[in-house]
Amino acid sequence: MILMDNRHAHITDSFRSLRIGIYGAGSMAEAIIRGLTEKRLIAPDRIAVVNRSNTERLEELQRRYGVAADNSPQGKVQLLQAADIVLIAVKPKDAAGALAELKTCLRPGALLLSVVAGLSIATMQRIAGPVPVVRTMPNTSSSIGLGATGVCWSDETTVDQQEAALHLLQAVGYATVVAEHDLNMITGLSGSGPAYVYYLMEAMIAAGIDGGLSAEQARELTVQTVRGAAEMVRLTGEEPGELRRKVTSPGGTTAAAIETLEQYQFQQALRSAIHRAEARAQEMGEQIGRVTF
Ligand SMILES: NC(=O)c1ccc[n+]([C@@H]2O[C@H](COP(=O)([O-])OP(=O)(O)OC[C@H]3O[C@@H](n4cnc5c(N)ncnc54)[C@H](OP(=O)(O)O)[C@@H]3O)[C@@H](O)[C@H]2O)c1
């Protein structure tokens, strides 16, 4: 226990001494900046953020979180060259160009950490060189500290870099280490996952309104139901199937609803949707991999 506490204290202290450069100042970048600064894992002035062209956005992040920013060509290079970890947070279509630009700005030994969907370690290293790389797949709930992220790394990463990457991602929620080939599955499951739950909630709210509830009542009852169900699974540690069976009495209302869902093959539809998203992540990754530099 004491050994673990010492290790944790070491990770926390060494993380505070790092400099983090963030390449691409969009919503994922902001989620990570918010997580790191709200949890006081690192001083805001040790985080630097750069963009392609949107300087107003950089000023906004500077004002809101106290991070460093400079979008002049020289200033950008200086901020990135000072970074121990460079987080690449641009859209997949911009990733190859961004990596080619980064190749000339990374200082030796710096860690490249990507949140870009589909961008493989091999593609990053083909463009940016044989640098240590961490590839991740987060989701939008990271913006409220409840993200679910899959992480893998290249052989060049040190144990300290792996721990620093996990520490950074855990600032915005749950993070788990997987083999790279599992990241497409994670994209289908938790990366796109919030949208499936929103889709389910849309249907629940619509049914409530159809049944005569006000829009506000239908919305609040749905939100609380989804929140409560997720928390029940988390807090009790019971399997969702077990919890479902416990609330389903034979011949009752829930049984009637589940029978209807089964007629529509609800579970099969959802599983097919997740596997389709997984396959799409694979296709998108292959597209990025075909870009030549
Ligand atoms: N949002 C999510 O929940 C989520 C979840 C999982 C994974 N991701 C991944 O996170 C990445 C970023 O997503 P996002 O939603 O944060 O995107 P976003 O809000 O569109 O932001 C992208 C940012 O990248 C900047 N950029 C583009 N090309 C650049 C370049 N060459 N050099 C420097 N900056 C550049 C853009 O700057 P300008 O405005 O100046 O062009 C913009 O600020 C994506 O690859 C996505 O796959 C996002």
TrEMBL record:
Pfam families: F420_oxidored, P5CR_dimer. NADP(+) binds at A89, V90, K91, P92. Residues 19-118 form the Pyrroline-5-carboxylate reductase catalytic N-terminal domain. The keyword Oxidoreductase applies. Signal peptide: none annotated. The keyword NADP applies. Pathway: Amino-acid biosynthesis; L-proline biosynthesis; L-proline from L-glutamate 5-semialdehyde: step 1/1. Residues 180-284 form the Pyrroline-5-carboxylate reductase dimerisation domain. This is Pyrroline-5-carboxylate reductase. It comes from Paenibacillus dendritiformis C454. The lineage of its organism: Bacteria, Bacillati, Bacillota, Bacilli, Bacillales.
